[in-house]
From TrEMBL:
Gene3D superfamilies: 2.40.50.100, Helix hairpin bin (1.10.287.470). Keywords: Coiled coil, Membrane, Transmembrane, Transmembrane helix. It comes from Syntrophomonas wolfei. It comes from the Bacteria. This is Uncharacterized protein. SUPFAM superfamilies: HlyD-like secretion proteins.
Length: 175
């Protein structure tokens, strides 16, 4: 019988695979042994049922305020007038107080003045005065006469060019 040499056994692939399998098994077993006391979260289940509650629920009891509600302005202003008293019931949209806002009032007045100025300017453009209409009419007539004069000059030069009395360069200048 041949003698087994330890070196040849260690070099064989079967021996190497066996060592890897043993190492994996030891590591897995050690992890399972350490975590064997793990207890998951207990979950209770129940069957879902559909029930009709009805349109109204009648109950007796008392409603109490859990926390006090305060009305606070976003910016510090002087209070001009207060329309409600402490503890008084209010409705949605009810005016509670009026604050003094001089900067905003000035800004509003400036905006209203600018609006009035623009409205006046618009009315002047849409409904011009008799004087503005006369000026516009005179400017139109002047432009019409100038146009007629230039057209006549052009027609004359065109006739002269056709007759050979003026050069093509003079004709180009007339254009």
């Amino acid at each position: 019988m041949p003698a087994f040499n330890i070196r040849t056994i260690c070099q064989t692939t079967i021996f190497k695979i066996a060592l890897i399998i043993i190492a994996v098994a030891l590591i897995s077993g050690l992890n399972l042994w350490r975590n064997h006391k793990y207890s998951g979260t207990l979950v209770h289940t129940t069957k879902v049922e559909e029930k009709v509650l009805g349109e109204k629920v009648y109950a007796s009891g008392r409603i109490e305020l859990q926390e006090k509600q305060e009305a606070v302005a976003q910016e510090s202003r002087i209070l001009k007038q207060l329309y409600v008293k402490t503890g008084e019931r209010v409705k949605a949209g009810q005016l509670l107080a009026v604050l003094d806002c001089p900067a905003e009032e000035r800004s509003l007045a400036d905006a209203l003045a600018a609006l009035a100025s623009e409205e006046l300017r618009y009315k002047e453009l849409v409904n011009p005065s008799a004087e503005d209409l006369a000026i516009g009419q005179a400017e139109f007539e002047e432009a019409k006469i100038t146009c007629d004069n230039k057209r006549k000059t052009w027609e004359r030069k065109e006739a002269l060019c056709a007759a050979g009395a003026i050069s093509a360069q003079e004709m180009e200048t007339a254009r």
